[in-house]
Amino acid sequence: MGDAMGTFLNSTWLKNLNISRIPILKDHGEYGIVVTIVVAVLIPVLLSALFLGKKKGKVRGVSVQVSGEPCYAVRNARETNLVEVPWEGASTMAHLFEQSCKKYSRQRFLGTRKLIGKEFVTSGDGRQFEKLHLGEYEWQTYGEVFSRVCNFASGLLKLGHNADSRVAIFSDTQAEWLIALQGCFRQNITVVTIYASLGEDALVHSLNETQVSTLICESKQLKKLGAISSRLTSIQNIIYFEDGGNAKDASSESLSKWTIASFGEVEKLGEESPVHPSLPSKHHVAVVMYTSGSTGLPKGVMITHGNFVATTAAVMTVIPDLGSKDVYLAYLPLAHVFEMAAESVMVAAGCSIGYGSPMTLIDTSNKIKKGTKGDATVLKPTLLTAVPAILDRIRDGVLKKVDQKGGLAKNLFQFAYNRCLLALKGSWLGAWGLERTLWNAIVFKNIRSVVGGNIRFMLCGGAPLSGDTQQFINICMGAPIGQGYGLTETFAGAAFSEWDDTSVGRVGPPLPCCYLKLVSWEQGGYTTSDKPMPRGEIVIGGFSVTAGYFKNQEKTDEVYKVDEKGMRWFYTGDIGQFHPDGCLEIIDRKKDIVKLQHGEYVSLGKVEAALLSCNYVESIMVHADPFHNYCVALIVPSHQELEKWAQQAGIAYKDFSELCNKSEAVSEVQQSLTKLAKAAKLDKSEIPAKIKLLPDPWTPESGLVTAALKIKREQIKAKFKNDLEKLYA
Predict the structure, then answer these.
(1) Cα separation of 293 and 3, whole Å?
(2) 142-159 and 175-186 are packed helices; what angle lies between their axes, rounded to 10 degrees?
(3) What domain of life (predicted)?
(4) What is the dihedral of CA 518, 521, 526, 530, to 10 degrees?
(5) Shortest CA distance to 552 belongs to which of 277, 278, 206, 214?
(6) pLDDT for the residue 494
(7) Is 633 helix (H, G, I), strand (E, B) or coil?
């Protein structure tokens, strides 16, 4: 969903998950494991015999006639008409928020962990790392938060902000982020969202293009703002969160031309001098959301209040039994459409939202002081959002830990996993509920405790999730995964897999707020008349489709179209196919297809997705040149895996950079890729003929990947131009 996801997704943070330190199976001793296996084998066999059954197919999306060019269109099977609002009277996020706060006024709403203390530890190489001692969650009720929102909204105007100008939020996710957002909505002020990881040039571009007059940020960002103050043309006010950072930067000379105030000071201003609200209409632009796209400077997407509530209403129909008893762990960046949409759903349903961070998420996160608990353990959430990079990391870590245990413990895990996999595939559905309880207690309980032990539903988006990982997480976490597809341009609202759909590789039927249609792309060989399933470019129409790009009419006209009946459509550039039950599968992307010298087509994205599962690969970019008849690849290898191989092979090297240049290492990785490519049934022309190993990771800070770890092809091609030329020499 969208193009960016925040710095928590870079390889450094993924390493901080420290999955290797998570206990996978309890140590009952060899005798205990033998007894467990005997019992575990006999009970499932008896249950299977008693409850043998087969899952029936279910229609999830149905074809529908829509206006516009020839296409194959589908709507949600449960809804004849498109859903626009979650309930009558909630036409904007400002109205929805006020109504939810009044309905759930006494229930807990926003939670933040108490900071007990900080300390710094020194690693063997002399580097210092901050460790946090965090206590329990401290909660504010819906009623209390609504009062703070009203106070902040009034204080913002009393500070001198012109309600006709824009506010930007430049911060990591926290409770005050949401309070500031809703405060702006209450005065019909458009909010510009900017990723905390954004580089200086992109930050200056975003603020100047939208002519932001008030900037809300963390105190730690004040120093960065001071350094670029001469380049910012419209800023008048700075409001900083009192987050324990160095607030003395607020008085620095470089910031003296602006009015500087803390978040608490603004709230107090509003409490002392309340201002009557000015609520928006559904057509007003709520947010200009900047994406860190794969090419050029970020684009600002104009999201209306109508887009907000439409996606919110639609997702509420997908999550089973969603309500005020649910607890949601918020740690993804609120500047990303996935998290903003998710928190909007939680607000509408009256859920509790506990804020965490990527660096404190689990007990073994690197910022958690030894002996204290991570956010998930303390909060025990029932709902969790995740992105494929995190889930892939968890899966790999668990499997490595199981391999290390070996013997009977490994056999027990594999047997339990295979039994559950059979259930998911429908071979013995009747026994599933009873047997699942057994396996949960014996095998999977420790894995689930990593994220609190109470997860009942997971939302996944941001990028394609592999089928193997989806099945693995579903089984080991014991919770269905709702895999979503959408973009910033559709406020995340497009397709969402349903809780009882255990198939993999698909993103479900259309959400009830929109239609999905496939338009033939003859040049790429994808048509709606293809058999056995119609294929084509995915086009999204309905209430979730946004208003376009800020000050970029040319790009807006290129990808947004309005048909003769007034329906607004967004052309995604993604290629999909519809299964007979109305579920969508993403199979390609128009920009990723290159025609080689002899006429063969290579889908770069498809090849990269297949080769990413190689143990040696941390990041990969496949490159195809139309003037050659083969493709090549640039690869950032896994330090751990490549160094492990080098040790076993007796390869001597001074540092990792030298290892990457060793012909033996290149040969080992290439052989592994070729074997994997053949197993994935890639054509010969799709298998990289030559590769280059690059020692340094691609991170959002390096500018080579988006914050969602999607590669920036043009930037990578430019940086490694010489390496690519040598591969083709």
Answers:
(1) 5
(2) 60
(3) Eukaryota
(4) 60
(5) 206
(6) 96
(7) strand
- The encoded tokens of residue 142 equal 């819906």
Query: Where exactly are the structural domains of the chain?
Result: 596-728
Alpha-carbon separation of residue 580 from 75, 500, 504, 531, 589 (angstroms): 13, 17, 15, 11, 22
For 655, the 3-state DSSP assignment is coil
**Please, what is the Cα angle at 354 between 217 and 481, to 5 degrees?**
110
CA distance 589 to 593: 7
Strands (DSSP E) found in 219-295: 237-241, 259-262, 285-290
Which phi and psi angles does 411 have, rounded to 5°? -65, -40
Q: Which tokens sit at 498?
A: 């349903």
DSSP 283: T
* Residue found under tokens 């994406």: 291
Query: In angstroms, rounded to a whole number, what is the distance separating the alpha carbons of residues 306 and 512?
Result: 14
- 624, 631 in Cβ contact below 8 A? yes
Residues 596-728: name the CATH superfamily.
ANL, C-terminal domain (3.30.300.30)
Task: Write down the pLDDT at residue 35.
Answer: 52
Separate counts of helices (H) and strands (E) for the chain? 23, 28
Per residue in 471-517, pLDDT (tens digit) is 888 888 888 888 899 999 999 999 999 988 888 889 999 999 999 99
Query: What are the backbone angles phi and psi of residue 700, rounded to the nearest 5°?
Result: -60, -35
Instruction: Please report the beta strands in 166-223, taking only residues with DSSP state E, as ranges in sequence order.
Output: 166-170, 191-194, 212-218
Q: Are the C-beta atoms of residues 240 and 263 closer than 8 Å to each other?
A: yes
- CB count within 10 Å of CB 637 equals 28
- 457-460 and 383-386: which strand pairing? parallel
| Lookup: tokens for 530 | 């293809």
Per the structure block, which two tokens stand in for 119? 């300390």
- Strand runs (DSSP E) across 625-675, as ranges? 631-637
Q: Which residue shows structure tokens 């928006």?
A: 280
690 and 723 Cβ atoms separated by less than 8 Å: no
Tell me 683's DSSP state. -
Query: CA 237, CA 257: separation in Å to the nearest integer?
Result: 9
| Sign of the torsion formed by the C-alpha atoms of 268, 271, 277 and 278 | negative
The label of the residue with tokens 């943070």 reads: 13
What is the DSSP secondary-structure string of 308-356?
HHHHHHHHHTTSTT-STT-EEEE-S-TTSHHHHHHHHHHHHHT-EEEE-
Give me the pLDDT at residue 431, please. 42
For tokens 């019909």, name the residue. Answer: 188
CA distance 632 to 525: 23
Which residues have C-beta within 8 Å of that of residue 242, sequence separation ≥ 6?
A: 219, 262, 263, 264
Q: How far apart are CA 83 and CA 343, in angstroms?
A: 19
Let me know if 296 is exposed, middle or buried by CB neighbors in 10 A (0-12, 13-18, 19+): exposed
162 neighbors 399 (Cβ within 8 angstroms): no
Q: Which two tokens stand for residue 141?
A: 């009720």
In Å, how far from its chain's centre is CA 674?
30
Two tokens, residue 502: 């255990």
Contact 440, 478 (CB under 8 A): yes
Counting as low any pLDDT under 70, the low residues of the chain are 1-56, 124-125, 244-251, 292-296, 426-435, 707-708
Residue 77 pLDDT: 94
Residues 29, 94: Cα–Cα separation, whole Å? 58
- The pLDDT value recorded for residue 322 is 96
3-state DSSP call for residue 178? helix
Q: Are strands 535-542 and 108-122 parallel, antiparallel or unpaired?
A: unpaired
- φ, ψ of residue 591 to 5 degrees: the values are -70, -15
What is the Cβ-side half-sphere exposure of residue 412, based on CA atoms within 13 angstroms?
28
Q: Which helix (H) or strand (E) holds 184?
A: helix 175-186
